[in-house]
């Protein structure tokens, strides 16, 4: 049995090391804590403002008439209700968008509040809530591997996000897919053009794809159904790409696209299901009227090329610089002098 002196000599260094580690963790925690500047609206208050802000957006989009004019009027009422100016709101949102962890916490609480109030009102369980119950196993599985909440900006630096999910042994030829998410926008101008593209890539480099335009605060679903998948081909990967359009002439305007509660379901084909096999091994039709062109299906494309080849009426509008035309010198009138 060790003597009391030896025990004290053993305990003291241990306490010193433990105290040192504790102090180090404390200072790291304090150094990582970000204090809100005085001009930024607090998280609790911003959560209440954003709740009313997005409700106002949804109400404005459901009304008849000019959607942009309705949005402006409804949002101004929100600012009046919370006794803030539009400039205060915009300045605070710029700060929060630069500190994504704070903004993620706010939107997580917003989703929880909306879900709780919907259940209290006796509304049906939302599609997202139903889908989120699925695990990563079974005949119907949620295979989403990306972030649960993320934000894209309407500028060159942060307007593109892609999640690629490699296939594993649980995937089967003939599997179909569905993607669902909730979308919310905060913009200073009328630019609300965002795109979601879902692709299934097979080992023979053929691709099935579906894409949609997101233009407001709503839920979006994309489907690659059993009538388009290749029953005999092995799946290599499934990917989802999110692209937020921007205007080069107004690149400094604040635009934020909040994507939350994403769900990507994979369905196994059941015995007896009819799955169409595409005859042409190099061509695969996509279940969407907004699919990319045939020339783009067998190679990777840039976001700009994907945008420009959308088969939809409304494309991203990029304003070119106007050509400066200098006024020409006016022609001088010929003066005829009278004969004397």
Tag the structure with descriptive keywords.
9 strands; 4-stranded antiparallel β-sheet; alpha+beta; 340 residues; 5-stranded antiparallel β-sheet
Give the low-pLDDT segments. 24-32, 274-300, 311-327
The helix/strand class is alpha+beta
Multimerization state = single chain
**N-to-C terminal Cα separation, in Å?**
142 Å
Order of helices and strands: HHHHHHEEEEEEEEEH
Overall number of strands: 9
The main pleated sheet reads as: 5 strands, antiparallel
- How would you state the average pLDDT, rounded? 75
Question: Mind telling me the C-alpha Rg?
Answer: 28 Å
Strand content: 15-25%
Tally of alpha and pi helices = 7
Fraction of residues in helices? Answer: 25-40%
Shape summary:
elongated
Describe this structure in words.
With 340 residues, the protein is α+β, with helices and mostly antiparallel strands. Helices cover 32% and strands 21% of the residues. It contains seven helices and nine strands, in the order ααααααβββββββββα. Strands 1, 2, 4, 7 and 9 form a five-stranded antiparallel β-sheet that branches. The chain starts with a helix and ends in a 32-residue tail after the last helix. About 16% of the residues have low confidence.
List the helices and strands and how they pair.
Elements: H1 4-32, H2 43-62, H3 67-81, H4 86-97, H5 100-120, H6 127-131, E1 140-142, E2 149-153, E3 160-166, E4 176-187, E5 194-202, E6 207-214, E7 219-224, E8 235-244, E9 255-267, H7 303-308
Antiparallel strand pairs: 1-9, 2-9, 3-8, 4-7, 4-9, 5-6, 5-8
């Amino acid at each position: 049995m060790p003597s009391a002196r030896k025990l004290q000599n053993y305990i003291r260094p241990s306490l010193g090391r433990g105290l040192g580690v504790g102090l180090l963790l404390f200072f790291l925690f304090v150094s990582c804590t970000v204090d809100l500047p005085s001009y930024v609206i607090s998280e609790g208050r911003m959560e209440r403002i954003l709740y009313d802000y997005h409700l106002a957006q949804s109400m404005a989009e459901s009304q008849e008439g000019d959607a942009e004019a309705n949005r402006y009027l409804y949002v101004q009422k929100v600012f009046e209700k919370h006794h803030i100016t539009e400039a205060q709101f915009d300045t605070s949102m710029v700060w929060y968008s630069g500190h994504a962890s704070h903004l993620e916490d706010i939107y997580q609480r917003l989703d929880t509040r909306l879900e709780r109030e919907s259940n209290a009102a006796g509304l049906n369980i939302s599609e997202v809530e139903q889908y989120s119950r699925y695990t990563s196993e079974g005949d119907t599985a949620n295979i989403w591997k990306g972030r649960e909440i993320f934000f894209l900006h309407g500028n060159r630096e942060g307007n593109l996000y892609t999640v690629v999910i490699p296939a594993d042994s649980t995937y089967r030829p003939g599997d179909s897919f569905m993607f669902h998410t909730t979308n919310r926008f905060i913009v200073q101008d009328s630019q609300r053009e965002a795109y979601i593209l879902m692709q299934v890539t097979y080992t023979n480099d053929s691709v099935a794809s579906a894409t949609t335009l997101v233009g407001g605060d709503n839920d979006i679903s994309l489907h690659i159904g059993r009538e388009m998948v290749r029953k005999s081909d092995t799946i290599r990967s499934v990917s989802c790409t999110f692209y937020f359009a921007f205007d080069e002439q107004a690149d400094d305007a604040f635009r934020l696209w909040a994507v939350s509660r994403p769900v990507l379901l994979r369905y196994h084909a059941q015995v007896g299901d009819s799955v169409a096999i595409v005859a042409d091994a190099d061509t695969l039709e996509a279940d969407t009227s907004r699919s990319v062109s045939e020339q783009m299906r067998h190679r990777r494309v840039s976001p700009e090329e994907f945008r420009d080849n959308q088969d939809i009426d409304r494309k991203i509008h990029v304003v070119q610089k106007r050509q400066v035309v200098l006024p020409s010198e006016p022609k001088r009138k010929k003066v005829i002098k009278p004969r004397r």
